[in-house]
Amino acid sequence: MTTRTTTRKLLCAAMAGSLAFLAGGCGDSDDGKAVDDYVTADKLCGGGAVTEDAAKALQVITGDTRFAASGTYSTVADAAEELTREAVPAASGYGDICRLYPEAPVDELRVTWDLSNMPPREGAASEFTILSMGEEAGAAHDTAFVTFPCSHKEHPLARPDYISVWVEATGRPTEPEGDVRPQKNAYATVTHSFALAMAKELGCEENGGLKAKPSLIPVT
Hints:
Blueprint: H1 3-14, H2 19-24, E1 38-40, H3 52-62, E2 66-68, H4 76-87, E3 93-100, E4 109-116, E5 129-131, E6 136-139, E7 143-150, E8 161-169, H5 181-202
Antiparallel strand pairs: 1-2, 3-4, 4-8, 5-6, 6-7, 7-8
Helix pairs in contact: 3-5, 4-5
């Protein structure tokens, strides 16, 4: 489990019982009901967030092609709306986009966003392979992130927000033996897909600098 995941869980525990806990998406489901239906990856999180390449990458990560249908409010559109609300008073925050539950009995993947009004100050931790996507991106065997700036044509002089999208395995996945690049590339591909969907949903100029395809060549 990454340090970031541990920190988030501690924050969620500390905020239990407050409005922030409800807004931060710390619960296991968005509507308190179990989901029995299983769908293909392209139908997850409101549809349109998982590209064909990302669906193949999810199969690399989970070994599965079908996932529990996302809850009513576990969509990119709802996450973008929540992020926009957070940006107005605080210019910072974090929240869930959705969670991915494979049909096979393995740990779920958590897709989240972080918002800051400042670009990343330091490079990613040594556990990540740095990739050339957006403002900063990195991938490890059990998590990846993509950070991109979000400015708007309607407000060209306004300082851009910086949004990070994360895809993280909950639990403690064991690092694969041998070449871990396929696993890292899979996480990076899924994260890029969600980051691009968020950038489009938010109307970020030039999609936050994100291309249609992920860049999986490590930065040297």
